[in-house]
Design goal:
The protein has 4 helices and 9 strands. The protein is α+β, with helices and mostly antiparallel strands. The protein starts with a strand and ends with a helix.
Length: 160
């Protein structure tokens, strides 16, 4: 395998259930017969609309990972500002491992602001990177075997 590409979405059943309940609650509150729409303040309407947009939007976000001859790249699409790139020469270590998302990183998503960072969406398998500057970065993956093949191909050859 020369290029590894992976797309992941937030598709956990419990996350879908939580957001469905929240969105239904907001919509029921909007359209309840006891409170006509005119009684809601502008702030209330805007905040509820933002809640619905975030609730639906979380399921449109994709975490994309690409590993090729130039290095490792990950980002949350459509947010290009989340892009992280590592060349093979920047990395001291690269390997897959099991991890504990909640206890090690506090959950899923973009985690670890001033400490070891992680981009993950689901599961407990990831690509552990350590830069030559001593910084750690973990990228969640659902395909650790394919990642291992690509890392062996490029990372081990770049060390020579």
């Amino acid at each position: 395998m020369r290029v590894f590409k992976e797309e992941q979405r937030f598709t956990q059943w419990w996350l879908i259930a939580i957001f469905t309940i929240v969105i239904l609650g907001i919509l029921l509150n909007f359209f309840s017969y006891e409170k006509p729409l005119q009684q809601f303040s502008t702030f209330s309407i805007v905040s509820k609309t933002i809640g619905i947009i975030i609730g639906v939007g979380i399921f449109l976000v994709k975490m994309r990972t690409r590993i090729d001859k130039s290095g490792v790249e990950v980002w949350f699409s459509p947010f290009r500002f989340t892009r992280k790139s590592f060349t093979w020469k920047e990395l001291e270590k690269a390997h897959t491992r099991k991890y504990k998302p909640v206890t090690e990183y506090g959950g899923w998503g973009i985690r670890g602001l001033n400490k070891p960072k992680a981009y993950n969406v689901k599961g407990n398998k990831g690509i552990q990177l350590k830069t030559r500057k001593g910084r750690y970065f973990l990228i969640g993956t659902q395909q650790p075997d394919n990642v291992d093949r690509v890392i062996r191909r490029y990372f081990n050859n770049s060390e020579q």
